[in-house]
Amino acid sequence: MSSEPGGRRVVLWRHGQTAWNLERRFQGTTDIALTAEGVAQARRAAAILARLGPDAVIASDLCRAADTAAELAAVTGLEVTHDQALRETYAGVWQGLTHEEILAKHGEQYAAWRRGEPVRRGGGELETEVADRAAPAVDRAVSGLPENGTLIVVSHGGTIRTTIGRMIGLAPHSWEALGGLANCSWSVLGEHGRGWRLLEHNAGSLPEPVIGDDT
């Protein structure tokens, strides 16, 4: 997708691959480490994101996000601020279950969530509650940026989706329309006259300038 000049930017970067990702297990707040491939993904992505000249990096304190952020810190020299508010959605008894096990044991609850209903998956957090803690953490970090500065937020797929939804003003039942992020892919929000605009989603390259009418 595209970018536009001026204004602050927020890059929301998902952590690298874990063993539970490969097994399609719901991680939630369980602290699962990166695989060797996950570390390599983080290193490759960090080399690209460093070209944005970021001014600040914040990250979930769960090791899969913290270790991903460390790869960017290594090439930029920036200090990473860790914040529990950026953790993945707590999903109670769903955590540690595979997708198939969730469907077998909690199929009705899963179906309600897919329909966009407010559901405490596994007895855990509502998506709006995740946004209630994560979006303000991003806002606080943005407030410390210089003019036209860039913030990198290293977090988790569900938390990133809810944070984007909140920041660009989508109704909660529509957040799932944003889709997921691949491991170590990112989304970019740009400051706009009406608030925040989604410039890129599930990207692995840097945004190109807008050339055309939609500026």
Contiguous runs where pLDDT drops below 50 for at least 5 residues: none
Tally of helical runs: 6
User: In this structure, how is the largest beta sheet organized?
Assistant: 6 strands, mixed
Oligomer: single chain
Helix content: 25-40%
**How confident is the prediction overall: mean pLDDT?**
93
Strand content: 15-25%
Class from helix and strand fractions: alpha/beta
Secondary-structure element string: EEHHEHEHHEHEEE
Spatial sequence of strands, sheet with the most strands: 4-3-5-2-6-7
Radius of gyration: 17 Å
| Distance separating the two termini | 12 Å
Organism: Streptomyces spiramenti
Pfam families: His_Phos_1 (PF00300)
Protein name: Histidine phosphatase family protein
What does this structure look like?
- The protein is of the alpha/beta class and 215 residues long.
- The protein has helices at 19-22, 36-49, 63-76, 99-114, 127-143, 157-167; strands at 2-3, 9-14, 56-59, 80-82, 150-155, 186-192, 195-203, 208-209.
- The strands form two sheets. Strands 4-3-5-2-6-7 form a six-stranded mixed β-sheet, sandwiched between helices.
- α3 links the parallel β3 (56-59) and β4.
- α2 (36-49) packs across α3 and α5 packs across α6 (157-167).
- The radius of gyration is 17 Å and the shape is globular.
- The model has no long low-confidence stretch (mean pLDDT 93).
- It comes from Streptomyces spiramenti.
- It holds the Pfam family His_Phos_1.
- This is Histidine phosphatase family protein.
- InterPro entries: His_Pase_superF_clade-1 (IPR013078), His_PPase_superfam (IPR029033), PG/BPGM_mutase_AS (IPR001345), PGM_Phosphatase (IPR050275).
